[in-house]
Amino acid sequence: MRLTRMFLPTLKESPADAEVISHRLMTRSGMIRKVAAGIYNLLPMGLRVIRNVERIVREEMTRSGAQEVSMPFVLPAELWKESGRWDVYGSELLRVQDRHGRDFCLGPTHEEVVTDMVRREVRSYRQLPLNLFQIQTKFRDEIRPRFGLMRGREFVMKDAYSFHSTDECAEREYRNMYDTYMRIFERCGLLFRAVEAETGQIGGSFSHEFMVLASTGEDAIAGCSSCPYAANTERAEIGEPVAGMGPSPPDVKEKAIEEVRTPGMKSVEEVSAFLKVPPARLIKTLIYSTDKGPVAALVAGDCEINEAKLKRAVGTETLALADEKAVGGATGAPMGFAGPVGLRIPLYADWAVRDISGGVAGANSADAHIINVAPGRDFKARYGDLRAIREGDPCPRCGSPIEIKRGIEVGHIFKLGAKYSAAMNSTFLDENGGARPFIMGCYGIGIGRTAAAAIEQNHDAEGIIWPRPLAPFDCHLVPVNVNDSETVKASEAVYSSLVEKGYDVLYDDRDERAGVKFKDADLIGVPVRITVSSKTLKEGAVEVKERKAEGARLVKTECLAEEVKKILAVKCAPGG
Nearest-CA neighbor of 81 among 424, 440, 442, 417? Predict the structure, then answer.
């Protein structure tokens, strides 16, 4: 492709609303342009990258045994009402009406539609298992769309759905998809990690996220320093500690509780300093509103509550910190003075709270706390893993220290069970002739998000450094002076030769200064840059530079094709 004929509007400066590296570089390199908040045009350079991601995904999904379909983008409300999600999905679901006043939504995901499709056509267990996938535009009305393709409202996604007659079959397909995703992201040349994750609004019994590791990632990942265990911090497990290991000074274990005045002191730091006790001996009491009524969550003062764990422990659909009125109704005190002693609502406590004695807690009275609190003696609670994991905590599998890294979610796989099939009466006949709901799985990959994550992981101060499998072109050909006939003649010969051998070449045939061309080449990030100049031609050579390498080298023109082949044929290691 000759650059003089390509629609490639590069920019010297980043747009003011671009907060992350991928958004800045995708805009500056002429890949995307904003249409509205969270909605973007893909320009030719950007579309080339997206098509490369799609190709890898499509090839590996087909290899796995999945079959490609295409489902509509505009979905009838009836199907969402059948599943029960029409009223609970939230404001991210963009609802519309047609001219007849019938309700529809723009598809954020397609569990309902695919379940309906399969229940109409699949009758017998003999037709199972079945895995159907599509690569299609989705829409989620994000409250704060940002970060370009990283968190847009309209985006391209690969979503797949599998149907099974047994749990065992569904788990085999889950493992098949896990292995498929590993191949996909390895082929994309990305450094990533598969982590245990929450199921969120999609539902189901368990899931894994696939995280591209990047210091700019939105998500925190807890990974073992020794074994393969990894989970996002919402899901990361903390094992039950050995009893008696808590911060419990022996001289206060048997003392009766005593109320002390703590005027205006609400935070852990304030109370800890005032009473001269370590934060680990404070019992932090948080009041939550749920669809089952108010509950109290207890963690040690030096820990943070993990709301995803609490939500699972309570078994609730909704969970939110109570407002001041609700806190007063549950405790009889203003915010900041809640404590477990005497509370008449369910108490859920982290393991670490169980071993605190000589503890400090709110007195459920304004400007007061109580000391010498002993769990078990002074209050009863349901104990479990409720706190957020921290760097250095022991791995729940092998005990080695946990490391916290940043990541960008690019894929997610779920074991759904019968959540949708049972709700929508989607059944098959088993070997005994009985009707049973399909056991389902769900598997998604953000196509544009994968491209953006690749940039977050692979860039420098000058621009993008594309992993070879995702790069929009194989080579970037730069003649230094298009007004020099020998340079142009040699450049045309190089261009024709490489194209004939099947390489995608971006040929910068613009009448621009060499510095401008080199700046754009670094910004765009094609793996191999070939520079032709009168100086190199005197030696019968061209200059070859790999985008990720420091220096360039001279290569004889007759050896160029072989050199390019050698560079591009090297197996792409993750992150390269």
Answer: 424
The CATH number for 284's domain is: 3.90.960.10
Output the pLDDT for position 136.
Answer: 96
Q: How many residues does the chain have?
A: 576
> Which tokens belong to 470?
């995702």
CATH number of the domain that residue 56 is part of: 3.30.930.10
Q: What is the mean pLDDT of the chain?
A: 93
Helix (H) or strand (E) holding 193: strand 192-197
CA atoms within 13 A on the CB side of 204: 26
Residues 439, 294 share a domain? no
Closest CA to 152 of 510, 451, 542: 451
The residue behind tokens 């048997």 is 254
CA-CA-CA-CA dihedral for 496, 501, 504, 507, to nearest 10: -20
Q: How far apart are CA 257 and CA 368, in angstroms?
A: 13
Q: Considering the entire predicted model, what is its pTM? A: 0.86
Say if residue 38 is in the same domain as residue 174: yes
226 and 259 belong to one structural domain: no
CA distance 465 to 449: 16
Asked if residue 467 lies in contact with residue 190, where contact means CB atoms within 8 angstroms, the answer is: yes
Is 459 a residue whose pLDDT tops 90?
A: yes
Sole residue written with tokens 């990632």: 217
CB neighbours of residue 276 within 10 Å: 6
Q: From the centroid of its chain, how far is CA 23?
A: 16
